[in-house]
Amino acid sequence: MHQDIERILYDQAAIARVTKKLGAQLTKDYAGKNPLVICVLKGAMLFMADLVRQIDTHLEMDFLDVSSYQGGTKSTGEVKIIKDLDIPLKNRDVLIVEDIIDTGRTLNYLVNLFKYRQAKSVKICTLLDKPETRVLPVHSDYVGYTVPNAFLVGYGLDYEENYRNLPYVGILKSSVYETK
Ligand code: 5GP
Ligand code: MG
Ligand code: MG
Questions:
Q1: Long-range contacts of 72-80 (CB under 8 A, 24+ apart)
Q2: How high is the pLDDT of residue 179?
Q3: Section 144-159 average pLDDT
Q4: Phosphoribosyltransferase domain: from which residue to which, for each copy (predicted)?
């Protein structure tokens, strides 16, 4: 285990298990629909890569980069689109893939934006949900694990761009950000 990690919450086997379960559900729910599966960069990239390989239907993928964090461990409340989608959403069944829902600001914004762009349906699949810290309402149709209010890293999730490559999700030692 990495020295900056307090505790592992979900190891590779736990992540694989839940990804397979979500993929099976999505395969059923999107059968015959050709959904547009949207990865929210950068955090969701590893989950997206594993999840789509468990969805056995036609689908298309697109990528969007947004930011609500200006580094650090606290949300600033502002959502900024850094890279927009390439594929038009009009009349598409859209599935947003996220790493974690915290305040809900990012997904609340994206769901409204995608509806404004006339998507036929907008659903969310998140690996992790942190319901305690919600500020704006977000309904996630597919949730991997519900997590406590701690700052998590690994499997795509970063602290100042580090730790995304850890193959597990763990709690970052508070000494890592408190000494800065
Ligand atoms: P929200 O807009 O719901 O507050 O959070 C959106 C983004 O904040 C997430 O997609 C994720 O990138 C980041 N975030 C929220 N909680 C955590 C966390 O515990 N660890 C890390 N590394 N990022 C988080
Ligand atoms: Mg994210
Ligand atoms: Mg981040």
A1: 72/160, 72/177, 73/151, 73/159, 73/177, 75/102, 75/103, 75/105, 77/103, 77/105, 77/135, 79/105, 79/106, 79/109, 79/110
A2: 73
A3: 97
A4: 9-159
For residue 19, report the distance from its CA to the centre of ligand 3, in Å. 21
% of the chain exceeding 90 in pLDDT: 89
CATH topology of domain 13-149: Rossmann fold (3.40.50)
Residue ranges of domains in the chain: 13-149
Instruction: Work out the average pLDDT over 65-85.
Output: 76
Q: CB within 8 A of 161, min separation 6: which ones?
A: none
**Gap from CA of 65 to ligand 2 centroid (Å):** 9
98 lines ligand 1 (CB under 6 A): yes
